[in-house]
């Protein structure tokens, strides 16, 4: 949407394709529903649809409904911004046991992603008292917060009803966050970290020995403002008295790496090894192991980009190779093919980082524009897709979904309720043609 916004500023016509019937990607299906102000970015993005020369062609999967070659023949330029939707693997024993889940799945479930086909969290959470979350990034913090919030704290969100009910009924008592390195190396940001200490019904705990910094970490800390703020928050928690008004505990652990996940037919434990950093910041195990009894393990160790048929891909870094957003193949620029966002840089950075990234790519595209060949195919792709029996969702169709979600929310005293079922979204969008 940021790339489309920057292009329409230069009076360039833009068709935005999405395999989902709804626009806005991770703003809708990634940003935690209780982060209401960050989610409101979609109101800003929604204004882009009001600009002249832009269309939405939702419910179109590139590589299935239409090929990248067809797109390239129909436009002067194609900008790939499809993100990094897959999860990274840990490669440890027990990773695939029922009850060991990827954070990407949990996030897709609680945000009401239409293609969600993962574990049945309504059933899983019903028997979950103790949870381990692997990783100490912002997604891990989102997961812990969503699992630990009270019914009333979640009531303002746009989560689907079945998600709210499952979270309300989950008998969660204990959530442990596991960082394989120390507090200085944790990738969560301070605002997100602080929120864990402000929950209505959960008390957060840290351990003094795990906050002690080795020489390398001290050196790192001196040059890292975010880490300094994080370490200050963690030390503040150390000094805090335990609360007696809560029924949930959050343990924030450092210098423990997952060794294996245990259980016969379902997760019943996770074994971690204590770790340390040497003078050069290299991580090693200390040979001391600890077993934690848990019912659920959430692996929150990062997202991973995937290849798109017909597009160059770097399987080592899982991004599309590029120079300033110009896609390259064996080092040579592929004319008319561009990339922005997580599939350009890898899955790091906040929304603002992606805006800047998209604007950078559009700058390259605008520089190239005079030399880009004209499209060889002139038939409108909306027509081509319709002839193939692909029902596309237009801006009007999306606006119908948007209005229905707001109405549904208002009926329940909430600003919005996300509609999760793809068939329902398609039915609401109707067959409104792209205008
Ligand atoms: P992330 O920040 O890269 O965090 C991944 C975590 O997984 C790190 O703590 C990493 O530890 C750990 N990890 C990786 N491999 C591991 C392994 N084998 N064993 C144990 N731990 C392992 O990724 P993310 O949390 O998925 O977030 C992605 C991006 O979205 C980030 O830039 C994040 O800031 C952003 N985001 C922002 C917000 C927000 O602003 N509120 C919310 C959600 C996401 P090491 O560092 O040791 O590798």
Write the CATH homologous superfamily of the largest domain.
Answer: FAD/NAD(P)-binding domain
Q: Let me know the largest β-sheet.
A: 6 strands, parallel
Number of β-strand runs:
17
Overall number of domains: 2
Strand arrangement, major sheet = 5-13-6-7-9-8
Question: Approximately how much beta-strand content do the residues carry?
Answer: 15-25%
Distance between the ends: 18 Å
Ligands, ions, cofactors = NADP nicotinamide-adenine-dinucleotide phosphate
Shape: globular
Count of DSSP helices? 19
Helicity, in percent?
Answer: 25-40%
Oligomer: single chain
Describe this structure in words.
By secondary structure, this protein is of the alpha/beta class. The protein has 2 domains: 2-85 and 305-428, 3-Layer(aba) Sandwich (Rossmann fold), CATH 3.40.50; 87-302, 3-Layer(bba) Sandwich (FAD/NAD(P)-binding domain), CATH 3.50.50. Helix content is 36%, strand content 20%. It has 19 helices and 17 strands. It has helices at 2-8, 25-29, 36-39, 41-48, 68-74, 103-110, 121-126, 138-148, 151-154, 161-169, 190-195, 208-211, 215-222, 225-239, 342-345, 351-368, 381-387, 395-411, 422-429, and strands at 14-18, 54-58, 78-80, 86-87, 100-102, 130-134, 174-178, 202-205, 248-253, 256-262, 269-277, 283-293, 296-299, 303-304, 322-323, 326-329, 332-339. The protein has a 6-stranded parallel sheet with strand order 5-13-6-7-9-8. The longest helix is centred in the last third of the chain and has 18 residues, at 351-368. The protein is globular and about 65 Å long. The two termini are 18 Å apart. The model has no long low-confidence stretch (mean pLDDT 96). The chain binds NADP nicotinamide-adenine-dinucleotide phosphate. Residues 90, 134-140, 142, 179-181, 185, 187, 192, 257-258, 300-303, 347-350 line the site of NADP nicotinamide-adenine-dinucleotide phosphate (NAP).
């Amino acid at each position: 949407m940021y790339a489309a916004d920057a292009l329409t500023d230069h009076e360039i016509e833009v068709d935005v394709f999405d395999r989902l019937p709804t626009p806005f990607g991770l703003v809708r299906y990634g940003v935690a529903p209780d982060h209401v102000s960050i989610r409101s970015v979609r109101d800003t993005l929604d204004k882009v649809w009001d600009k002249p020369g832009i269309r939405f062609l939702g419910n179109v999967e590139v590589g299935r409904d239409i090929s990248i070659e067809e797109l390239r023949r129909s436009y002067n330029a194609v900008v790939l911004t499809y993100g990094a939707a897959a999860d990274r693997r840990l490669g440890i024993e027990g990773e695939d046991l029922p009850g060991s889940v990827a954070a990407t799945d949990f996030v897709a479930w609680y945000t009401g992603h239409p293609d969600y086909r993962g574990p049945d969290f309504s059933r899983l959470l019903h028997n979950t008292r103790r949870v381990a979350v692997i990783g100490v990034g912002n997604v891990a913090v989102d997961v812990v917060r969503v699992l630990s919030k009270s019914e009333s704290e979640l009531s303002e969100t746009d989560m689907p009803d079945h998600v709210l009910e499952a979270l309300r009924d989950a008998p969660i008592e204990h959530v442990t966050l596991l960082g394989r390195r120390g507090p200085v190396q944790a990738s969560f940001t301070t605002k997100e970290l602080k929120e864990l200490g402000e929950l209505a019904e959960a008390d957060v705990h840290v351990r003094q020995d795990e906050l002690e910094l080795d020489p390398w970490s001290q050196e790192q800390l001196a040059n890292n403002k975010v880490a300094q703020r994080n370490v200050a928050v963690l030390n503040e928690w150390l000094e805090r008295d335990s609360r007696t008004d809560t029924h949930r505990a959050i343990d924030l652990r450092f210098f423990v790496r997952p060794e294996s996940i245990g259980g016969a037919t379902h997760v019943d434990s996770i074994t971690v090894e204590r770790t340390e950093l040497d003078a050069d910041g290299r991580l090693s195990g200390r040979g001391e192991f600890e077993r934690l009894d848990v019912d659920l393990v959430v692996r929150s160790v990062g997202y991973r980009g995937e290849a798109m048929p017909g597009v160059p891909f770097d399987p080592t870094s899982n991004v599309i190779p590029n120079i300033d957003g110009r896609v390259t193949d064996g080092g040579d620029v592929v004319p008319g093919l561009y990339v922005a966002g997580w599939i350009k840089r890898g899955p790091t950075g906040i929304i603002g980082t992606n805006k800047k990234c998209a604007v950078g790519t559009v700058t390259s595209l605008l520089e190239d524009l005079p030399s880009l060949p004209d499209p060889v195919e002139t038939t409108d792709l909306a027509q081509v897709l319709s002839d193939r029996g692909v029902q596309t969702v237009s801006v009007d169709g999306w606006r119908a979904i948007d209005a229905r979600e707001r109405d549904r929310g208002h009926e329940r005293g909430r600003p919005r309720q996300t509609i999760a079922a793809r068939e329902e979204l398609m039915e609401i969008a109707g067959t409104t043609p792209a205008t």
